[in-house]
Design a protein that fits this description.
alpha+beta; eight-stranded antiparallel β-sheet
């Protein structure tokens, strides 16, 4: 009986060490949760996220309604960010998802935020490392879980201009 308990203890230690080793290979990504991360619609987005974005594997994060792909992280997503209002910032429609695209000052990072969806989803990435079109296409299915209530408009869409 003593031999069985030693074998079980050894197996538990080996299992713990193996799990610690595996966890060390892929550390948890530290991402701040967005203010509205507890919104139930964010749960629907998170469940629908792809396992890969721009050929980068999904990694574990430490906050609700967040995700990251690649090691080091190439793409970071947060659901529940502030819903953007009307803006003159660049807006791109990718597979029927409208995204406001902003370049961060002093950095190569772009921030793409869904427009016309509540809660809003924010995606951070470096377009020199991963193609913006690939990132936004890959995330479109998950983001489409949040119903669109508004869409991006071009100046020509709002004014009756002479041709």
């Amino acid at each position: 009986m003593r031999r069985d308990s030693r074998a079980a203890a050894r197996a538990a230690v080996v299992g713990t060490l193996l799990m610690a080793t595996l966890a060390a290979c892929s550390p948890v990504v530290d991402v701040d949760a967005a203010p509205d991360a507890a919104n139930p619609a964010c749960a629907e987005v998170m469940v629908a996220l792809p396992k890969q974005v721009a050929e980068n594997d999904l990694r574990e994060t430490n906050s609700q309604a967040t995700a990251a792909w690649g090691e080091p992280s190439k793409v970071v997503l947060r659901c529940g960010v502030q819903v953007p209002g009307p803006t003159t910032d660049s807006c791109a429609s990718v597979n029927e998802i409208d995204w406001i695209i902003r370049e961060t000052e002093g950095s190569e990072t772009w921030i793409a935020t869904t427009y016309g969806r509540n809660p809003a989803v924010e995606v951070l990435f470096d377009p020199n490392v991963v193609a913006s079109s690939t990132v936004l296409v890959d995330l479109g299915g998950a983001v489409s879980q949040v119903e669109q209530s508004e869409e991006c408009l071009d100046l020509n869409d709002t004014l009756d201009l002479p041709s």
